[in-house]
Amino acid sequence: MPMSERSIFAADAITEETRAFNARLAEALAQAPPTHEQEPAAIRAAREQGGGPFGPIVKLEQARERTLEVGGRSVPARLLVPDRVEGVYLYLHGGGWVLGTADSQDPALWETATRANVAVVSVEYRLAPEHPYPAGPDDCERAALWLAERARSEFGTDRLVIGGGSAGGHLAAVTLLRMRDRHGFSGFAAANLVFGVYDLSMTPSQRQGRDAPLIPTATMEWFYRHFIGDRDPRDPDVSPLFADLRGLPPALFTVGTLDPLLDDSLFMYERWRAAGNEGELAVYPGGIHGFIAMPIAIGREATERQNGFIAAAVARRTAVAGG
Questions:
Q1: In 144-159, which positions are buried (b, 16+ CB within 10 angstroms) versus exposed (e)?
Q2: Who is most buried in 162, 176, 217, 275, counting CB within 10 A?
């Protein structure tokens, strides 16, 4: 019997597997200093050497590096192109605009590429604090422009989907808005927005997440200081929750019930729909931030739904183009 919306948020909706994994992860994280007590460069170096909560970075031989030349600037990217290409997925990695790399999720992106028949373009946007706002969003906008101009000649298709997780979900939403407002472009068929952060002035769940794993309130504040400094956090280009959301593509919002960014997805989904756009909301009981990368059933379930959503968006765009 399908779980009711109310029961999704109940404590007994969390499976024993998820509960046990969350407990083991919390114990492991307690042995290391929290992100907000470290320097960005040190965290990056440790992750490159295989440290961090998700272990060594796996880089696939199927991936290749590419420089996207657009608007007089070069934006590095990592491409994963399967044998069959029916669309292109512009992927923006997470990491609080401070951490993360384009090559840090090759296996997951290759799975998306082969399951959804899309070429994946993972953007190596500039990171704060060395390159604070608007550097990262500018690079993502340029990558989107490159695709708008070159997708068909490069990949044989102009069926585009955009997405990302955490800060990448934020950047995907910002990029859609910039492409609409600055370039009159509405060619993205869908948006895959995974536990994104859409309000940098902090939603209630962010403020209440003082003891949350991975991104407690203090860590979110640390990210914001590095990324936007003293800029108005409710500027729509900073916090897309406050933007005019009309005329955007269908979106899938994915989040776990124990994620401090829960409210960001709940609020953004409702505003997305209220603006007249199509939207789906997938909430997973017991999911903490980053749960889709974790070896638990809800992570696999969420990943399968996202890949299916991307594949369906490409197929829907194909039908429209062929009709």
A1: bbbbbeebeebbebbb
A2: 162
pTM (two decimals): 0.95
Per the residue annotation, which of 104, 122, 166, 205 is the catalytic one? Answer: 166
Query: Taking the chain, what is the end-to-end CA distance rounded to the nearest angstrom?
Result: 38
At 270, list the tokens.
């409702």
158 is catalytic: no
CB atoms within 10 A of CB 203: 23
Domain ranges within the chain, ordered by starting residue: 14-322
The tokens of 287 are what?
Answer: 């999911």
- Predicted confidence at residue 317, as pLDDT, reads 59
In the set 93, 170, 226, 289, the catalytic residue is: 289
**Averaged confidence pLDDT in the chain:** 95
Among the listed residues 19, 23, 30, the one whose alpha carbon sits nearest the alpha carbon of residue 216: 30
Is 239 one of the annotated active-site residues of the chain?
no
> Is 289 noted as a catalytic residue in this protein?
yes
Q: What is the pLDDT of residues 22-62, one digit of tens each?
A: 999 999 999 989 999 999 999 999 988 877 766 789 999 99
Angle between helices 167-183 and 135-155 (to 10 degrees): 70
Q: Determine which one of 106, 139, 199, 259 is catalytic.
A: 259
Structure tokens at 21: 């994994």
